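Escalated from tier 1: NAP holo job.
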Amino acid sequence: MDISKEELDKIVQKAQDAFLISKKFSIQKRVSFMRAVADEIEALGPELIQTAQQESNLPEARLTGEKGRTIFQWRSYADAVERGDSLDASIDTANAERTPPKPDLRKTSVPLGPVVVFGASNFPFAFSTAGGDTASAIGAGCPVIVKAHEGHPVTSGIMADAISRAAEKSGMPEGTFAHVYSSTYETGQQLVSHPLVKAVGFTGSYLGGKALVDLANQREEPIPVYAEMGSVNPLFLLPGKLSSVPQELAKQYAGSLTLGVGQFCTNPGLVVGIAGEELNQFIEALKEEIVKIAPGVMLNKKIATGYAESREKVIGQSGVEVLAVSETEAKEGQGVPTVATVAGVELLANPALLHEVFGPFALIVQCKDASEMLAVTEKLEGQLTVSLFATNEDVASQEEIVSLLQTKCGRILFNNYPTGVEVSKSMHHGGPFPSASNSAFTSVGADSIKRFVRPLSFQNWPDEFLPEELQNANPLNIWRTVNNEKTKEAIS
Ligand code: NAP
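Tier 2 regenerated the structure:
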């Protein structure tokens, strides 16, 4: 299955050739290609779900839902491209009367060039070969080379064929999409180092993402690696809310923690509360729930072993006490739901406890008071999400904690659990490092396309040679900022 350096060079060169051809295509052609990909995926028969089930151990209903999400990603990103959202076109017309005379300036966004995509194991459709990174890079106008995830190579191949068929039917040049297999990291690393590759999309572990970011920075021409990595996604339980419904919160939390055997990047693995009667009630109710939840089969052996090892490591730390473990014995490859606790002071002395345990594991941090809770907040690394469970009075009285939490994450939820990640314009799936390598960008929602473009200003250009989105007549009928006002009007 491995590929030689020469073959890899040919694939990247073809992607570059395709880039030079397709950058002259109309936006509409790209949009049609994206919609054709959605249609091809939609038309895939039961083989897709069955294969993904065999390769990932994920249940049929979950995979069926994920397939729908993936199709929606392609269609909604195509709509956004058609609307010109990621072009961010702006025009400042000339003023010859001004001293010095003001030039005519028109700015749009152009694709970066060939993009390499690494998918994650836990979403074989939505965050893998035909997932959001590929859809957004194609939406930007970039050719894509996918490094197939070793956890689901056959699924990856089925999706790659669907994209290739759509490319051919839509008249896209050869090299617009490529798919490579490799049993070692070397191929992926060669792709990231290749001089013709201009950006990387990555979803996966911190170790993988950071290694690729470092590699890209060592190139003669460093390139952006948009890596979405792990996160513990803390839940903050503020006293007013906790005292009103502790049992209800515990029940809901147990569901969110163990959903999909805890294998979500937004899995809430850390709970921070203030020690006392209310937190005890929450803990007692949570213990009752956790013992009843049976272990589930994890994505693959590597993930299951990784979970078992990180779980052992955390519960072996000083001051950590196990509160509840599923009463059903785990079989090989299964992840056992587990809840442990630690005092705030112990956590502050041992920040390694804040690292992600990928699976159904929760650590409950019991702070002695609000000022210790603030100290724990300060210690947090960058997170994809933070969930605040609070009353309005809690928010007003803990303003400092609430304000600090907003500096720590990409999405802050109010009395809500973070596991669902809506695909929409206002979603931000990313966050300060180490949850993501670049906190300015999202990997979910059509704004993810912006990762793979760069601005280009045209000064004093003849109208007929401008890209359509900048021409006076506004032939694409898109929203543009003209002399600081949003408008669809033509320029006379
Ligand atoms: P992973 O082990 O990091 O693998 C992701 C991809 O990167 C795979 O194709 C892998 O190659 C490749 N890779 C990893 N390390 C590499 C290196 N040093 N050099 C070159 N290539 C490398 O992640 P995973 O097992 O799929 O997913 C589990 C983790 O992903 C969890 O920690 C989870 O939190 C995180 N995750 C994050 C998000 C998010 O949106 N932030 C979403 C899902 C999952 P192989 O195929 O050869 O292994």
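The pocket of NAP is lined by residues 118, 120-122, 127, 147, 149-150, 185, 188-189, 203-205, 208, 211-212, 228-230, 265, 356, 358, 384, 443 (CB under 6 Å).
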